[in-house]
Amino acid sequence: MIQDKSINYDLNMDEKYRVYASMSFAILLLGVGMPLWWHTTTVPRVMLPYTGIDELSQLDIRITTKITVAALSVNRAELLAREIKQTFANAEIYHLDVDYQVISNNLLASAFTYHELEKVASTFDVDIGGLLLLEATNLNDAVLIGSKRTLYFSTETDIAKLMQVLSEWILHDKSLALTKNTLAEPTLYNLDEENRRRFPASLTYDVLITLVNPDPEKQKVIWDLKTVTKEYMQPFLDELSVLSNFSIKSQWLYLLPLDVNPRRIPDSSPSRRHFALRESILPQLVTPLEKKLASQVSLHPCINLVVYMVPCDNAPLHIYTHSGHRSRVDSNMEAFLSPRWGGVVLINPPLEVCENAREDEMVTIIPEETAIVGTLLAQLRLLLGIPETKSINGVTVVPLVGLKSRDWEIDSLLRYRTVEQLTSAKLTLQSLARLLKEISNIVITDVVGTRIKTALELVYESAEHLRRGNLEYSFVLSKEAFIISEAAFLIQHFWHFFTFQKIKSEYNFKLI
């Protein structure tokens, strides 16, 4: 009997211990295991300013530009100011702040030369991005555009011509609006020539100058390419350092013939022939060059400038337009651009050098440095986005002095770059926000979150300064926004986590 009671007691104790053990396990699982599991499996996601990013769709990028009209009479000044406001009242991207002043005729009566006009213009305070329209009595042209930020016009100048110069040469209002719209909605808009040709915004550009001698056994080229690069190209790029960083290099290439067969054309020259390249086949010349230039290994957009020394056997070589005419007449040099790639200059050897050379004898070529450098600089200006001035009757531009670009050209480039960088940063942030919303288990690190918030603040701040007319500071802010937004999108650790989480989600991988 006592033994039965002992057995029952032991059974009751075992049952009690099992209950306690189960309860302890449940408490441990709920109190420690579940929080630990939750903590170790939770995807870290920093809170992002989604509302601010969504509101970027309503961000109005508008450039305020101050224009001062200085005329000889009140009526003339008021009329011009009113006409400018009315002409650009519906401009998509501009807000013009126009004021006027009356200038004394005595001040301009003795100003006959451009330098004397510049002294008068220097008495006005014109900020970066601004413009002065100054009426001049002794002006031979209808409109003369200086190297600073002054547009001189005569007393007989037609107002319509002034408006045309402002729109097509200075403000580029239609092209700027197209730049913004094609970035935002590329399927709805087609790029114009300037936008197709210009390199997109970048923090750094590599400039590669290449001299090609396709037949070094028959022609010897004497040219100090390093000196040309150092004395001409580098100073020009240094003037544009406010826009981007530039790394410039030079190289020689040999045994690289043209990948096309020029057409032989009989003529009345002493050689009785020349060779023709149709304008339509010029892109075919770029492909073999690109394979040899090694520019594709560059980490940054590379601007290629190629000088090709045409051998005597294929000289003179000329480019023919679509209409069947030579692109250049009475010139030993031909040139063409490849949009967003670079420029090519074809140098024909002097005719007398080829005529006097004996068969299988090496000829020595000394290129005409000034003409070549001038062409390369002109190509570089166009590729970087300094707009080309199309001819307008009665309108003249003061020639460039040395290697320095005109101030109003730099202002134009600042506007283009600011609009590009602001729009690109805005679109990058919006794309990134959509991605992070769609994929809920994607990691958002503190670094990515901070960069997104900083870029967003910079976009709004840059747009605000652009509306206030602070072009230079707005450009600096837009550049920072562009850099930081790109860094947030492409950060290595972000994409590492993104790839892992995406694969894990799609294929239901389990961690054991």
TrEMBL record:
Where is the protein found, in the record's own terms? Endoplasmic reticulum membrane
* Keyword Transport listed: no
- Tell me which stretches of the chain form a coiled coil: none
Quote the Pfam families the UniProt record gives.
PIG-S (PF10510)
| InterPro entries on file | PtdIno-glycan_biosynth_class_S
Record field: transmembrane: 20-38
Record carries keyword Transmembrane helix: yes
Q: In which pathway does it act?
A: Glycolipid biosynthesis; glycosylphosphatidylinositol-anchor biosynthesis
Identify the GO cellular component terms for this protein: GPI-anchor transamidase complex
For this UniProt record, give its keywords in alphabetical order, as a comma-separated list: Endoplasmic reticulum, Glycoprotein, GPI-anchor biosynthesis, Membrane, Transmembrane, Transmembrane helix
Which topology term describes how it sits in the membrane?
Answer: Multi-pass membrane protein
Instruction: Tell me the Gene Ontology biological-process terms attached to this UniProt entry.
Output: attachment of GPI anchor to protein; GPI anchor biosynthetic process
Q: Which family does it belong to?
A: Belongs to the PIGS family.
Protein's recorded name: GPI transamidase component PIG-S isoform X1
Task: Please report the organism this UniProt entry assigns to the protein.
Answer: Pogonomyrmex barbatus
Q: What is the lineage of its organism?
A: Eukaryota, Metazoa, Ecdysozoa, Arthropoda, Hexapoda
What gene name is listed for this protein? LOC105428579
